[in-house]
Amino acid sequence: MKTAESAVAGDAAQKVYVAPGKYDEFYNFVSGGFSGNVTVYGLPSGRLLKTIPVFSVFPENGYGYSEETKPMLNTTNGPVAWDDQHHLELSQTDGKQDGRWLFANANNTPRIARIDLTTFRTVEILQIPNSAGNHSSPFTTENTEYVVAGTRFSVPMGDEDVPISSFKKNFRSTASFISVDKSSGNMKIAFQILLPGMNLDLSHAGKGPSHDWFFFSCYNTEQAYTLLEVNASQKDKDFVVAVNWKKAEEYAKAGKGHKMATAYAHNTYDESTQKASSVIEKEVLVLDPKDCPDMVYMIPCPKSPHGADVDPTGEYIVGSGKLAALIPVFSFSKITKAIQDKQFEGAFYGIPVIKYEAALHGEVKKPGLGPLHTEFDGKGNAYTSMFLSSEVVKWRISDLQVLDRKPTYYSVGHLMIPGGDTKNPSGKYLVAYNKITKDRYLPTGPELCQSAQLYDISGDKMQLLLDFPTTGEPHYGQAIPASMLKDKQVKYYDINKNHNAYVTMGEKKARVVRNGNKVDVYMTAIRSHLVPDNIEGVFVGDDVYFHVTNLEQDWDVPHGFAVKNSSSVDLLIMPGETLTIKFTPQKQGIYPFYCTDFCSALHQEMSGYLRVSPKGSNVPLKFGTGIVAPEAVAKQ
Ligand code: RUQ
Ligand code: CUA
After folding, report:
1. What pairs with residue 384 in β-bridges?
2. What is the mean pLDDT of the chain?
3. Pocket of ligand 1, candidates 412, 415, 476: which has the most ligand atoms within 8 Å of its Cβ, to mutate?
4. Once rounded to an integer, what is the mean pLDDT over residues 106-135?
5. Rounded to two decimals, what is the model's pTM?
6. Which ligand is nearest to the CA of 88?
7. Is the pLDDT of residue 629 over 90?
8. In this model, does residue 321 exceed pLDDT 90?
């Protein structure tokens, strides 16, 4: 038997070596799992390039702490500053990546985020009502017409108070279709499709011939609500749910849905005012398959399916049953024919169930144990992760023959081929995102690092090239050629277009304004000083808002800002940007503040003092920097 080490061929190092100063070939966006955020790696090097804060606060740059970004994390349950981030999808045009946006799901408090790929920033977060465990999300249709969100946990609609044992009667799952505006990218829940109580797991959109369809896997059609480990594994088959979203669109237009009162937060970041705002939406349009014939069909799928993946041609739909000993591959043309010929084997809550054999292209026999997810190389091959047998299995779609298998270390979850879930995969690399790393890295206490593994799939046989650690638990990832993003990066924000309400347009405008116990500090930062850097006349209990404008107009010159004892974190302010941090001093004293980002040879000098006096004392308001006496400025 080959050892893990000898499984790596001699030329592997060369294939992943990106010389100093050279760029990687791909950006790889990786879900952060329970870190709630997204990380960006270069491929093939596996070098970490960035963390993009999405659903969790991020002390490194003040995301979720600054007044400008706080509203991004607002929900109908108040601020939710953490989540469990599983899946990512890049926006598409004509079934191919277009490099505009990256969508990310929040599993725990159902939300979908949109990240702008010119700034690598989260610019929108939409909460999903009537959902819990937003797992089959955020997969997109071929032209990003819709991003979907399916419930992993069924719940009573409208959060009704009912006994848990009334699951069958009262619990429902929903598949939400969120429209994406073609130019702005803004998201809106177009409609929610009401489905029986069960667990929707994953999904992918159709392509080409199956363009109008979306396919969701589901488990727990037993409708268990306790000890699911046993009770939800009774049946031989659960379903792939096929949704004709074009039909759904027509029904919605024709008024076949009903408007349901609910509440969910819609948070958007405005680049002009440089501020996020949160609006509570009050209504969703719900479509019930009962009133909308031909909109939803069930396809039996063995056994507790997890992944639902569509090949680049759009003809084949792969269901991966976690407990199945085979991989069923469905044929879209057969599904269409079965629907025409009414080859049904009954109904599930009124939804027609297509006969398994009538929808089936064939089964991959004995692929391995615990198939989870499948990606495609665009050359007629599929790659399926095997959680239990810890391997990647390559098989041919046409004749369902297994062609190759390579071990992963260990317990692989998702796989990712750049473009591997689009019409246009780049079949050069495959990344396996693993759950367990025992003995692969230097030990780090009870928790070992999370990891990904890179394979070369350009030849007939896969070749393991590299292990690299990841942040949080990696679930799904997406990768895009670097050439599609690297030249359109925003280098700095144009200060003349900064319409933040608290911008300070130049050092002469820097000032401190008191309004009752609210003190607004309009501060500027430029190498290597802050204006003002001496502030007096602030009292214990005042709400002090530092609005710091970075006046630089150069790439890669952020300034940081932190004030001693502030319960908040620091800010990292990009060139041309204004960010605000609130500080309520609890004690009298001198509070130094400083730039936290080493920005020049005189960075250590980029600092100042805030004097906080006892409440009720008569220290006058004074501020200034350098030759201008604080008193003189205050009088202007
Ligand atoms: S799921 S492997 Cu969200 Cu498969 Cu993680
Ligand atoms: Cu600005 Cu250090």
Report:
1. 374, 393
2. 95
3. 476
4. 98
5. 0.96
6. 1
7. no
8. no
Question: Is the predicted pLDDT of residue 632 greater than 50, yes or no?
Answer: no
> What is the tens place of the pLDDT at every residue in 494-540?
999 999 999 999 999 999 999 999 999 999 999 999 999 999 999 99
Q: Which of 99, 44, 64 is closest to 457 using CA atoms?
A: 44
Q: What is the mean pLDDT of residues 365-389?
A: 97
Cα–Cα distance between 341 and 326 in angstroms, integer? 27
Distances, alpha carbon 105 to alpha carbons 34, 80, 295, in Å: 12, 14, 25
Q: What is the DSSP string of 185-227?
A: --EEEEEEEEEESSEEEEEEE--GGGTTEEEEEEE-TT---S-
Higher pLDDT, 56 or 323: 56
Ligand 1 atom nearest residue 373's Cα: 4
- The span from the CA of 171 to the CA of 436, in Å, is 34
Query: Is the per-residue pLDDT at 175 higher than 70?
Result: yes
Output the CA 634–ligand 2 centroid distance in Å. 25
Q: Which atom of ligand 1 is nearest to the CA of 475?
A: 5
pLDDT band at 108 (very low <50, low <70, confident <90, very high): very high
Whether the CA torsion 622, 628, 632, 636 is positive or negative: it is: negative
**Ligand 1 centroid, distance to 476 Cα (angstroms):** 7
Distance separating alpha carbons of residues 185 and 192, to the nearest angstrom: 20
255 is written with which tokens?
Answer: 């008024």
**In degrees to the nearest 10, what's the CA dihedral of 440, 443, 449, 453?**
-10
Distance in Å, CA 49 to ligand 2 centroid: 21
pLDDT digits (tens, 9 = 90+) for 193-222: 999 999 999 999 999 999 999 999 999 999
Residue carrying structure tokens 């060369």: 14
Using 50, 70 and 90 to split pLDDT, how confident is the model at 7?
Answer: low
Reported as type and span, the H/E element at residue 245 is helix 245-253
**What pairs with residue 544 in β-bridges?**
519, 583
Residue 606 pLDDT > 80, yes or no? yes
Measured from the Cα of 306, ligand 1's closest atom is 4
Spell out which residues line ligand 1, taking CB within 6 angstroms.
Answer: 86-87, 135, 306, 372-373, 413-414, 475
How far apart CA 146 and CA 364 sit, in angstroms, is: 31
The Cα angle at residue 397 between residues 395 and 399, in degrees rounded to 5: 90
Ligand 2 atom nearest to CA at 525: 1
Which residues partner with 230 through β-bridges?
Answer: none
Sheet holding 316-321, edge to edge: 305-310, 316-321, 326-331, 360-365
- Torsion on CA atoms 106, 111, 117, 123, rounded to nearest 10: -130
- Three-state DSSP at 495 gives helix
* 562 alpha carbon – ligand 2 mean position (Å): 11
Distance 525 CA to ligand 2 centre (A): 8
Residues 40, 252: Cα–Cα separation, whole Å: 38
pLDDT in tens, 122-172: 999 999 999 999 999 999 999 999 999 999 999 999 989 999 999 999 999
Nearest to 372 by CA among 433, 321, 310: 321
